[in-house]
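INFO batch 0412 | record 1 of 1 | parsing
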Amino acid sequence: HRDLHSFPTRRSSDLRVGEGVEGFVAELWTAVPNVMTVAITSPSGERTGYITLKQGREYRETFVFDRTEVEVEYRLLLENNDSQLIFMRIRNPAPGIWKISVKPVLRSDGRFHIWLPVQDFLTGEVYFLEANPDTTLAEPGSSLVAMTVAYYNGVDKSVDINSGRGYTRDGRVKPDYAVPGVLVSGAGLNNEFVVRSGSSVAAGIATGAVALLMEWVLNNTEAWGVNSSQIRNIILLGADGKPESGVGVWSHEPVSFPGHFTPVVVNARKREKEKIKWQIFLVNWERRFQIRQVILAKKQRIRWRFRRLRTTSVR
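INFO prediction complete | emitting tokens
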């Protein structure tokens, strides 16, 4: 990820491409009213020049000496978004230093981001020479409603270098909290336990913990329902509160949720006592009502008998 801002006229980002790379893509994002154009320079010095901005049009350039094909597409009017996207695809890139030059057509704060694919989507070595380690979250981790977790080493309590970091492009705190995700032991195939590391491990731990927390809330607090925002807030309230730039807050040992349940348990106990008192009141009231109904029924029978006696005596 490359993050550049507050530049007066133009800036450039250098990418190192290794041998054997079949191709890669890069995405440039900026917030409207910032509007950018780009130019691409190959390791041999061939250059496209700043490509004219036309909405939805795809440009193709071929670098003859490098035998590389470059595609650039401008997307300005994105649905449900206030951003401009410049999508760049480079096929069969020559190894060496590639340069992406950026020039503003309209400029507000001049801030923009360029992202490369995650490592698993690349066929070789592709990276920025001057990269920013923050704002490296991938979709859907930047979603408003989703809970996003970073992962850390439970031994030295440090965020793993491979963990995605925030903040989001529009400045929101993501990931929401950090959970263990390095050298975690768990069930594997053939009735064996294996040790794994990565964001998938952290996501699995967080998912299981959230499921337990949801079950507890629904069964013990008489809640009508619970959503992801409420669960996230409960976790944040009980986290260790060790903020770190681009990571949010820490939540050590998330399965036990130390400190999460104290205020909830107190409120649940109060509600339970109130519930018991109300049930006792209802039982007593129901008994009184039943007794009153029996008495009224007896009085009614006595009245009917008395009327019968009076009618018989008069005849």
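INFO post-check: The chain has three helices and 16 strands.
INFO record closed
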